[in-house]
């Protein structure tokens, strides 16, 4: 089927059901696939991407031309573009996933019980993972690689703006799977640009075990609202750094600057800085100078503006805003308790950090802040699967069930109990 020239008689519901059935069948085969076969497929996919580099760029050009014609802004076009360096990076990412330990089949906590049986837990694939994403074609390769290594089947639904790029990458993925003797249906890239495909995918609970949305807040809200399948997600990242009254000045300046300025458009970038009033006069002026030199717009509460009169007044809406831009909200607080109250009221349960030399304050912050990543004397920008040693991540979850924080290979698996006996019977 050509995604851009579907006939009027095309039955979307039947197509999606067929995709689901094939994914379920492939998932059963993938769950018992040997690590060597999975690694061979990943390495083969990497080789295919590099061999097909010119064709990938040619297909990507169709998407770029359509994007320009449809008025996509420069940032979206940049995320959409494939070039030789980005294709090489995709291939290297697959090779890195191949080098990671295979979590499937690992047995942990195996212990003897008084009855004589041994009880442990085995790590197993989730089954079929549906991934819905926007713009970046590299997600097609990344997501396929992570799902494959963790023994899952994947249904990938990329944005319509990248349809030609995604289908070209899918061809490389299927070649790698076929050459390794694994089912090509283990990774299926939806071939239609019909938005209703997303609505059907998130409701296919008979075929799909979990949905992972990757994109803007609107996409994630829609998927979360409509899904009948469990969703691994984070809605947005309103991340905080709190500079405590017992902070080391040099650490405070370095961390608060890096958390905001290392990269603006990520979900783990600091959006609100909280500063204890007793150190504000000492910390804020030099920190504000660093931000000004980086071109960051500062918006402050009334107490902040007493120290930084050239900052703009912060509105109540600013405390809940994920800017993804060189804009920072600053609030001066009485101390640790008020800082934590602010985070509880306005945070997104993503990543929050405290800068302090007080062990008691640090422990309270770690215990009482209910976020998926909580840090002491470290930049929020470390909230990342690679930085955590996961090798790669498929996204970040701020939910509490199953996976929380950066979701890597282990997050794409579940656990089942295993019991070993030798003719044991219960008395």
Can you walk me through this structure?
The protein has 427 residues and is an alpha/beta fold. The protein is 42% helix and 19% strand. The chain has helices at residues 12-30, 35-51, 53-69, 74-80, 84-99, 138-149, 163-179, 196-201, 217-226, 249-261, 277-293, 302-307, 336-346, 359-368, and strands at residues 107-112, 118-125, 128-133, 153-157, 187-189, 210-214, 239-243, 270-276, 297-300, 312-313, 327-333, 351-355, 373-376, 395-397, 405-407, 413-420. Strand 7 (239-243), helix 10 and strand 8 form a beta-alpha-beta unit. Helix 2 runs antiparallel to helix 5 and helix 5 (84-99) packs parallel to helix 6. The longest helix has 19 residues, at 12-30. The protein is globular, with a radius of gyration of 24 Å. The model has no long low-confidence stretch (mean pLDDT 94).
Q: Choose one word for the global shape.
A: globular
Q: Which parts are unreliable, with pLDDT below 50 for 5 consecutive residues or more?
A: none
Percent strand equals 15-25%
**Helix-strand makeup class:** alpha/beta
- N-to-C CA distance: 61 Å
Structure, briefly:
With 427 residues, this protein is an alpha/beta fold. 42% of the residues lie in helices and 19% in strands. The N and C termini lie far apart (61 Å).
């Amino acid at each position: 089927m050509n995604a851009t020239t579907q006939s009027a008689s095309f039955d979307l519901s039947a197509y999606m059901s067929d995709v689901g059935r094939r994914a379920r069948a492939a998932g059963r085969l993938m769950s018992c696939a040997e690590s060597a076969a999975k690694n061979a497929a990943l390495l083969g996919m990497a080789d295919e991407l590099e061999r097909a580099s010119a064709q990938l760029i040619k297909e990507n050009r169709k998407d770029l031309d359509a994007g320009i014609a449809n008025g996509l802004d420069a940032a979206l076009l940049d995320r959409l573009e494939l070039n030789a360096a980005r294709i090489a990076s995709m291939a290297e990412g697959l090779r890195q996933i191949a080098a990671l330990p295979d979590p499937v089949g690992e047995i942990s906590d195996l212990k003897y019980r008084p009855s004589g049986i041994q009880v442990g837990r085995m790590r197993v694939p989730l089954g079929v993972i549906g991934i819905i994403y926007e713009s970046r074609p590299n997600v097609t390769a990344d997501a396929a690689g992570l799902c494959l290594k963790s023994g899952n089947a994947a249904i990938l639904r990329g944005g319509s703006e990248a349809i030609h790029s995604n289908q070209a990458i899918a061809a490389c993925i299927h070649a790698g799977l076929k050459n390794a003797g694994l089912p090509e249906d283990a990774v299926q890239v939806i071939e239609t640009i019909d938005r209703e495909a997303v609505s059907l995918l998130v409701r296919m609970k008979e075929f799909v075990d979990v949905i992972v949305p990757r994109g803007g807040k609107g996409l994630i809200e829609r998927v979360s609202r409509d899904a009948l399948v469990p969703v691994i997600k984070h809605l947005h990242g309103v991340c905080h750094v709190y500079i405590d009254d017992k902070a080391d000045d040099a650490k405070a300046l370095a961390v608060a600057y890096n958390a905001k300025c290392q990269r603006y458009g990520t979900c783990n970038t600091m959006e609100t800085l909280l500063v204890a009033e007793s150190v504000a006069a000492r910390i804020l002026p030099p920190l504000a100078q660093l931000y000004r030199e980086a071109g960051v717009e500062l918006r402050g509460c009334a107490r902040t503006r007493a120290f930084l009169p050239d900052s703009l007044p912060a509105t109540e809406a600013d405390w809940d805003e994920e800017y993804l831009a060189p804009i920072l909200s600053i609030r001066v607080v009485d101390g640790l308790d008020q800082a934590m109250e602010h985070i509880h009221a306005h945070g997104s349960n993503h990543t929050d950090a405290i800068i302090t030399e007080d062990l008691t304050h640090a422990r309270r912050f770690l215990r009482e802040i209910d976020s998926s990543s909580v840090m002491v004397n470290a930049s929020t920008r470390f909230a990342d699967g690679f930085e955590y040693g996961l090798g790669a991540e498929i996204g970040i979850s701020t939910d509490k069930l199953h996976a929380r924080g950066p979701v890597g290979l282990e997050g794409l698996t579940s656990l089942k109990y295993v019991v070993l006996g030798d003719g044991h019977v219960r008395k």
